[in-house]
Every structure is written in structure tokens, then in C-alpha cells.
Amino acid sequence: MAILAEASLLPHLDGSCGVTWVDREGDTATVRSRQFATRQEAEAFARSIGLEGRGPDMALALLQPARSDAFAAARSGDWPRAEEQALGVLRIDPDDGDVHRLLGVAYFKQGRLDESIAELKAAVRLDPSDGAAQHNLGVAYGLQGRRDDAIAALEGAAAAGMRSAVGSDLLQMLRGAVEGSADDPFTIQATQLVVRQYLRSRSGGRPGDTR
User: Fold this and answer.
1) Phi and psi, residue 55, nearest 5°
2) Strands 28-36 and 7-11, how do they pair?
3) Which of 41, 94, 142, 185 could bridge across to 36 with cysteines, CB 3.0–4.6 Å?
4) CATH 1.25.40.10 fits 7-203, yes or no
5) Above 70 in pLDDT, residue 185?
6) 116 with 101: CB under 8 angstroms?
7) Mean pLDDT score, 47-51
8) Contact predicate 105/42, CB 8 Å
9) What is the DSSP letter of 179?
10) How far is residue 18's CA from residue 112's CA, in Å, rounded to a whole number?
């Protein structure tokens, strides 16, 4: 991922957030990232290692201007704008996994789960090590009542290195939910209830615009 700014904040579906930054030492530049339970924790971490002095919003300035606009719109919660800009980027570069993940979040926030899942699956296909995309995919699957798919995606996120308490909590909750066949209405409803309760606990009372 080509990064021009010193730090990028990557929001996830449940309010958690990743920080990606360039660690420069002499002529060596290494891209590093960490996951946090909330955006506030991510911003506090970025400040603690001196990454904020790049503008009042610590803007998500990535390679192309449209890409930058897409991430900035997501950070401000302008999901239609984020969708519009992300689609523009993908028309030029359809293999940008980060933007597919962002578009998946934008669709999710607008209540369009089928489209969200398609984009998150594309992000995982392009980068199987993208734990954030797999985590988000697990949340979206769960809201569709697809317990086994949700668990598989969350396990993939953990295997990819996203071992935050956030993802682990949801994974344990789903594993403890009522088991049954994939098309059992009770299993579907129980799975949806678990994920909605989880999201309410993360967002102060509602699971985004998905109901």
C-alpha cells in the first residue's frame, strides 16, 4: 500500500479502528499497523508516537486524490460520498483491496448487506492477509444470519493477525449461539440477534443503518 501521509485511520464496521503508518529510519521505510477497539484509542495511539502533526484531521491522504477523498469521506461518516469516490478509484484500479474493503464498509453503513459482502469478499480475495476485511465480513455475514460463514470469516481474521479483543468477543459469542442447520430459521434469528446485540454494545444502542 503506497502511503504519502504519515498515518492512516481505517474505520471498521463495529466502531473499531486500525492505524497504519510509515516507520522511516534512514533510507528504510516500513509500513506498520495496529488495531484498536475504538477510533478514539487509535487517535490517542497515533498522537502518542507523534503521528498527528499532519493537519487538524490527520487526513487520510493516500496515493490518488480520489482515494484520499474516499477515505476522508469514510472518516467523516459521509458514506454516499465514500461510495462514490471508491467506485471511481475501482474503475481505474479494480485490484485495490483497501478500497474494496472501504466500499464494503460504505455499503454496510447504508444497509446494503449483499453489496457489502461482495466487496469485502473481493478485498479478502485480493489480500487473504487482510484481517480487517475478514473481520468486517464476519459482522456482515452475522447480520444476515449466516452463523457458519460469520465464524469462518472471524477465524480468518484471527489467523491473519487481527487478534483484537473486539473480534474475539464476537467470535466467542457466535460460537456460543444456538447451533443448527444453515437454513434453520431459529439459528438464523439467533445469529442475527447476537450480532445486533454486539453492535449495540459497541455503538451506543444501534448496529448502524442495517435494520
Assistant:
1) 130, 155
2) unpaired
3) 41
4) yes
5) yes
6) no
7) 73
8) no
9) P
10) 23
- pLDDT at residue 163 greater than cutoff 50: yes
pLDDT computed for residue 52 by the predictor: 54
Positions of E strands within 43-127? none
Tell me the pLDDT band of 13, cut-offs 50, 70 and 90: low
- Grid coordinates of 133: 476485511
Domain boundaries, the chain: 7-203
SS (H, E, C) 3-37: ECCCEEEEECCCCCEEEEEEEEECCEEEEEEEEEC
User: Looking at the DSSP assignment, which residues form a beta bridge with residue 140?
Assistant: none
Q: Note the residue count of the chain.
A: 211
DSSP at 208: S
Position 121 pLDDT exceeds 70: yes
pLDDT(209) > 60: no
Among the residue ranges 28-32, 75-79, 167-171, the one predicted with the least confidence is: 28-32
Which one-letter amino acid corresponds to residue 124? V
Cell numbers of 110, please?
Answer: 447504508
* CB distance 135 to 15 below 8 Å: no
Q: Report d(CA 14, CA 9) in Å as an integer.
A: 14
Angle, in degrees to the nearest 10, between helices 65-76 and 79-92: 160
Using the 8-state DSSP alphabet, how is residue 94 labeled? T
